[in-house]
Fold these 3 entries.
Entry 1:
Amino acid sequence: DAGVTQSPTHLIKTRGQQVTLRCSPKSGHDTVSWYQQALGQGPQFIFQYYEEEERQRGNFPDRFSGHQFPNYSSELNVNALWLGDSALYLCASSLAGPGRLGYTFGSGTRLTVV
Amino acid sequence: QQQVKQSPQSLIVQKGGIPIINCAYENTAFDYFPWYQQFPGKGPALLIAIRPDVSEKKEGRFTISFNKSAKQFSLHIMDSQPGDSATYFCAASMSQGGSEKLVFGKGTKLTVNP
C-alpha cells in the first residue's frame, strides 16, 4: 500500500520564478494538507484541501496557492519565489470524518531558491 | 495562543537511558496531542498521540504524560536505542468545522550513543 508520494524530491529555482509541487495521497485518504518546514524548525501549516476546496489556511501569503483534483491528488503553487521560500515542503494526507486517524506525511520536496 | 513550545532543542543520552522531551501549549481548545519522529530526508511519522482526558498513554517503549491543568505534555522513551536517534516533534490540534491543522513545536534532536 503506497503511502504519500511527492514529486519532485528536490528542486532549485531562481528568485521571482514560479514552482509547482505535487502530491498523491495515501490510498483511501481524501484530505490533503501542505506544510512548510524551514531548516531546523517544525512544519508550519500552509493549507488543507478537501473535496477540491481549500478548507483551512495558515498564515501564508496569496503567493501560495493550491489545488485538489477529483482523484484527491494535490498541487502546491508558489509564485514570485523569495529566498525565504527555501524549505522542505511536506504533503500530508488524512481521512475526513469524526474519527482522527492521523496524518500520513510524505518525504517532502526540498525547494532551494537562489 | 497557537504556539506549542518544545524543549530541549537537543538531547544526548546513552543507550538504555530515558530521554524526556517536554512541550507546553496555551490554547485550551487543543484536544489532540501527537508526537512525530523524523529522520533526515524523511517526513514526520506519527509515533503516539493522546487526548486531554487521559493522563498517560504507553505504546511500546514510548510514553506520553499529559498534565491538563499545567497545559504540558511530555514524551518518554524507555530503554533508548541508537536507532531512536532522530528529531522529535510534539504537536497539537483542534477540530474546526470538520477540519484540523497541526501546530508543531520546533523539534528536539535526540542522539542516543551506543
Note: Chain A has a mean pLDDT of 93.
Entry 2:
Amino acid sequence: DAGVTQSPTHLIKTRGQQVTLRCSPKSGHDTVSWYQQALGQGPQFIFQYYEEEERQRGNFPDRFSGHQFPNYSSELNVNALLLGDSALYLCASIIFGTQQPYGYTFGSGTRLTVV
Amino acid sequence: QKEVEQDPGPLSVPEGAIVSLNCTYSNSAFQYFMWYRQYSRKGPELLMYTYSSGNKEDGRFTAQVDKSSKYIPLFIRDSQPSDSATYLCAMSANAGNNRKLIWGLGTSLAVNP
C-alpha cells in the first residue's frame, strides 16, 4: 500500500522564479493538505484540496496556489520565490469525512532552497 | 504567544533514560491532541493521539492530557538510540472536514548509546 509520494525530493531555485511541487496521496485518500516547515519550526498549514477545490487556506499569500487533479494528486505552485520560502514542503492526505484529525498520512516532503 | 509551545531542545539523554517532552497550548478550543515523530529528512509520523483527559499508553510511550492546565506531556520509558528524532505535538479544535493541525516547534531528542 503506497503511502504519500512527493516529488522532487530536493529543489534549488533562484529568487523570483516559480516552482511546482507534486504530491500523490495514499491509496484510497481523496483529500490533500500542504504544509510548510521551515528549519527548526513546526509545520504551517498552507491549504487543503478536495474534489479539485481549495477547501481551507492558512495565512499564506496568493503567491502560493494549488491544484488537485481528478486522480486526487495535487500540485503546489509558488510564484516570485523569496529567500524565506526555503523550507520543507509536506503533503498530507486523508479520506474526506474522516472524523479523526489524526488520520493524516504525511509524505517525506520536498526540500526547497531559494538562493 | 504561540498557540502551541514546546521546549526546542536539543535534549540529550543516555540510553535507558526516561524522557519527558513538554507541550502546552493556549487555545481551550483544542480537543484533539497528537504527538508526531520526525526523523531527519523525513515527514512526520503519528506516534500517539488522544482526545480525552488522562493518560494514554502505547508500549514505551505515554501521553498525558491535562486540559485544566493545557499541558500535554509525552513520556518515553527505556529510551533507545532509535528514539533520536524531533518530537512534534499537534492539535486540532475540530473533527471532520474543518480541521487543520496546529503544531508546536518540536523538541529535538538525542539518545546516546
Note: Chain A has no helices and eleven strands.
Entry 3:
Amino acid sequence: SQQGEEDPQALSIQEGENATMNCSYKTSINNLQWYRQNSGRGLVHLILIRSNEREKHSGRLRVTLDTSKKSSSLLITASRAADTASYFCAPYALYNFNKFYFGSGTKLNVKP
Amino acid sequence: DVKVTQSSRYLVKRTGEKVFLECVQDMDHENMFWYRQDPGLGLRLIYFSYDVKMKEKGDIPEGYSVSREKKERFSLILESASTNQTSMYLCASSLRQGNQPQHFGDGTRLSIL
C-alpha cells in the first residue's frame, strides 16, 4: 500500500524551538498531505504538496518534498504549546483511487 | 467550513451486540471513509464509499459492514461486536477527486465488554 512512515515516533521540545518531522514512502506519488491530530480528536488537514513542488509554506509550517528520495519533511517554526499533537503524512497516488494510507504518526510534545 | 459529525463520542457495548456508528457530513462530498485507530498501528481503512449505495473494502473489512443510503450519511455496522473491535473509529469525507483533503469527525471511542 501507499503508506507513509513518520519519523521520529515521538519528539519533545521547548516552546519557541523548531520541530522537524519526516515522512518516507515507497512508490511514486502525485501529492503528499500532512495532517494534525490533537489528543482524542479527529485529524485536521494542514498542507498539501504536489509532486512537482519542492517546498511549500503555510504560516509557521514549511513542508519539503524530495521525490528522488521518496521523503518529505514538516517543519514547525517557533513552536507553541498548542502545537502539541500527533502529525501524520499521507502520500497519494492516482492509482489509490481516493484512498489515503496513514502511518502511526509523530507525537510532538511542546513544553511551555 | 466542512463539518463531519459522528453520532457518539463514547460508546460501550457488549460482545455479540450489533453496533451502529453513524457519520454525517454537510458539504455534499462524494467520498466517505471509515477508519479505526489503534496505538502503534496508526489509522487503518475499514470501508470507503464514493457514491450513494457504493462501497469498497479497505484494509480491514472483516467483521464490519457499511451502509450509504443518502449522500450525507455513512454508517458503520459491527455485525456481532467482539472485544478486538474496541478502538477509536474515525469517519472522514472528501470531494470526488483523489487529491482533495479529507475532513474528519472527532471520532467515536468504542469499548466492547
Note: The interface with chain A takes residues 4, 31, 33, 35, 40-43, 45, 48, 50, 56, 58-59, 90, 92, 94, 96-99, 101-107, 109 of chain B (CB under 8 Å).
